[in-house]
């Protein structure tokens, strides 16, 4: 992914994790978590904005982006929650500010509520957090992953491009779309794409959904007002479950808010994070 380098490596229980630290300053550290089928690349603009006054940590989950992709790999939300907890310890970050998108939201919530990861504050951006989730396409692929893995490369590429494109409301720049699709191409990438869908299971969010009322740190929920993957009604439902949460809707943005409205999202996050230190 040209122009986006993750030069550091961490050996986790689920495979090698690639990560990087951006920014300087003496502000409180922030960690950015991506969702599926994306990678830390979607945070590039926001990360650089946040990094003007604080260190920013970005990482690709095992099975995604530049991190390890391997046969038989456990890339479930359960595994990712444990890996994130491991990674925070590796970074020696006791109470970072955490910003998490999509599946990354579920990962950060599981790490906090089940594994004792402590955050100074939590910002959730269009997170996978409430039942029911999973589009008809997502369920079809999950139930038939071995069949989809056998698709000819050209058909697989077309499928992934169409799927990723649908996460944006105004549409993605062709070069950006190429970068988002690139990790899922080739033998290892194609298998990894269907592996992460096959291992997606709502029970991993069911295990924590009833505990959102226990979140006792400052929290922000940001949501693309035009999200077709997870309807904006879920934003209001989630906000009603987290004590003292702030809800911000981003007009004109779909599920992939970082690409659709990076300036607006960065502004909302900067305001929230600077209030926390």
Describe this structure in words.
Helices cover 41% and strands 15% of the residues. The protein is α/β, with parallel strands linked by helices and 277 residues long. The protein has an 8-stranded mixed sheet, sandwiched between helices. The longest helix is centred in the N-terminal third of the chain and has 15 residues, at 77-91. The protein is globular and about 50 Å long.
Brief characterization of the structure:
This protein is α/β, with parallel strands linked by helices. It is 41% helix and 15% strand. It has helices spanning 44-50, 77-91, 103-114, 136-143, 145-148, 153-165, 174-181, 186-198, 203-209, 233-239, 257-260, 262-276, and strands at residues 8-12, 15-22, 30-33, 56-59, 97-101, 121-125, 219-224, 246-250.
What is the helix/strand order?
EEEHEHEHEHHHHHHEHEHH
Strand order, largest beta sheet: 1-2-4-3-5-6-7-8
Q: In angstroms, what separates the terminal alpha carbons? A: 32 Å
* Radius of gyration from the alpha-carbon trace, in angstroms: 17 Å
Shape designation? globular
Structural class: alpha/beta
Helical content stands at 40-55%
Main sheet record = 8 strands, mixed
Strand percentage? 15-25%
* Total number of helices: 12
Mean pLDDT: 95
User: Any low-confidence stretches, pLDDT <50, length ≥5?
Assistant: none
- What's the total number of strands? 8
GO molecular function: hydrolase activity
Pfam families: Abhydrolase_1
Protein name: Alpha/beta fold hydrolase
Keywords: Hydrolase
